[in-house]
Fold:
Amino acid sequence: MLRDIDLTGVRAIVTGASCGLGIETARAPTAAGAEVTLAVRNTTAGDAVAETIGEATGGIRPRVVPLDLADRATITRFVDAWGGPLHLLINNAGVVTGGLERTCEGWELQFATNHLGHFALATGLHHALAQGAADRDGAPIVSVSSTAHMRSGIDFDDLHFERRSYDPQIAYAQSKTANSLFAVEATRLWAADGIVANAVNPGGIATGLQRNFTPDQKASLDAAEAAGVFTYKTVEQGAATSIVAAVAPEFAHSGGRYLDDAQEAYTVPNDADLAQHPHGVKEWALDPATARRLWTVSTDLLRV
Structure:
């Protein structure tokens, strides 16, 4: 994906780059010359990854900076410490829980980490991204979503499962729909600054993301694989779609899209069957009015 592309001078951030998909997502732009920052919760693991990447790229070693997307204080520290332009933000990190977990604010953990944490990071870095866009005629944001988005839209009446019974798969799905909607509204608001955002589905990849799965979640995943909803990819194959969203000319100034298998996905109705459309994107994940409402709600939550 990066053959003949020189990213020298590009300053990039990859969240969740201490394991799984994030490692390859960070290694590829580093190898192309980018100055990459690994924004990670576990800095010991991050340092080990940075060392490995440095060895693989002939001595170009990424920076490692602590970031816990479920902890607003660490996001604030990260944003405040960032100096100068930012040319590429890849919101790759994600969490899956086996049961209901909450942040100190009482927010459901998957929504708080996968969406709200990345939302706070991106909005906090908006000025740096605008600087980066002025430097290089554009600053893309990559928002990692999932086929799981097809299981649920956004329940604005009960975002944090305070009244409905908790289903970790529905909670994860809601957060992944939110990742796509972020790309829609970020592009609408920030395209004039040269910032566009696109959502990507990396596909099914065996990573640490599945470590907290319950037996029911594992059974559901196995059933989906058996039904042909997905075929497992390598991390390199999964990272390819993120890299396309980050560097492909056709997405340099075009945002609010959802990519699957390194190309823009086709849109399906909200009642479409996941097994029949594993490479589609539901309308609720691209709806401009829903995206605008989610942005407002997210902004209000982070003000508290």
